[in-house]
Design brief:
Chain lengths: 297, 273
Amino acid sequence: MQEERFPGHKLLPYLLILPSALVIIIFLVIPFAQTIFESFFQATPFGTHKVFVGIANYIQLFEDMDYLHSVIITLIFSAFVIFVGLTISILIAMLANQKIKGIGFYQIALIWTYALSPAVAGTIWAMMFAPATGIMPYIISKLTNGYALNWMTNSSAALFIVSAAATWKMLGYNIVFFIAGLQNIPQELLESASVDGAGPWSSFFRIKFPMLSPTVTFLLFVNMLYAFFQVFGLIDIMTKGGPGNGTQILVYKLYQDGFVNLKTGFASAQSLVIFVAIAILALFQLRIATKRAVYER
Amino acid sequence: MAAKKRKEIIYTILILFSILVVSMPVILSIIISTQTPVQVYSSPPRLTPSNHFANYPAAWKSVALGRMMINSTIVAAAVTAGKIIMGLLAAFAFTHFEFRGKNFLFFVVLVTLLLPIPVRIVALFAITSSFHWIDTFWGLIVPFLASATATFLLIQRFKMVPSELLDAAKVDGCSPMRYLFQILLPLSKNTIGALIVIQFIYIWNQYLWPLMATNSKEMRVVQIGVKMLINAEAMNNWGVIMAGVVITMLPPLLVFFIMQESFMKGFALASEK
């Protein structure tokens, strides 16, 4: 990584890393290894002992229509959160990157909602869309001559509203990183492009967007983890996976199977499948990122 | 100049509109938190604040929110401090020393990014139980302590420190730990400020693990309190629920506003480059 700066200290670097390493091994690596192990076992009906079942949990998983449904719901949900969220965020960040009076204040006003939790975001959106009293069903009803939006019974509406709430909650976070990324683009580059006759569109697609690619890669990864895992509280508060199982994303099903239905082996197999999916997507993003690394300074 | 002025006005209007859209749900929640049930249920919906502040004590008492606020504060403060201290030590080791297994250990820290709680939750729960840490502060704090984010951001920061500083310190006979705490630490205060905001908010907002790792009323945290409040308030008494929501979002917002300057600088790295 770098040249040796404090030669002669053989033990010290290990002592410095020890606290982090201990926590990582005890609470991350061992539980993960245990999860792999558990995924090949099933508890007996009374939970007295565990039986080795090979890959039966995995076979059961891919034959389970509920699970496949949950995969599709998760893909729709995450695609919405990632692409709608990042598009809106980059547009707002470009507005907030102008040199105008009071911009520091405006930037803070655009990102402060980042401090809210998914559970709080879910509660507020549930209030806004509450069928009898909420402002949104009222507006929709006025606009459509009386259509009564009830996402407690309409699973497509529920998925859309949950996705919108989850997207809204991440806007502040995304905008911070896009503003930071835009500020790191050297001004000379944009000036020389405008001297060469580049308009706002080509300056965005030819210069800003490629220069932002490390930021975009990072945010794709963070938003993916968010849409897969962090939104648990939002779903639990807004819909509990319903109506039917219309908003039952993978992490919610995992929780249901592992801790409500107490099928730990089955839940462990689900954990592992999610991990493999995340790891593949992360590697894929990393490859694209390193290919584009020429733009990084 | 007139064209430039007009452009500035258009941008300002667009920005104000974006601020309004982004903040609207929170503004609404504050408005509703001041309304009586009759006002909440009025049609068309009433969009102006009222003065029914009794919702706040009602929410506070309904689910013992006070105790949860204390619990969340203890957990968030402890994890934030722990993550930053451990991140400082690890980042110092990775940037200033050569040792066997360095790349492997760096890879171990990197992998933690791919192992969020849900992919190891069944076994994590079992291990935490075996320590008898379920329903204790230990169980809420220790599993979160290691941090790839803190380590990486501090590595980035340490790499930007000019090497002349180190040479001068070594001439003066400065020990490694003194160099870390007296030279590197003060130089990294914006990065640390940004980390305080990120980690405090991250831990304050945790939901799944506290839901599983606690079960007594005395150990619950505020995010679970929000859910309990919704269940406790029959007929969706939104005034009281929104009052509870507003209370639970105050501490992370306070941290955000106090630290906002170093938060923005720590990200843009404007002053630390």
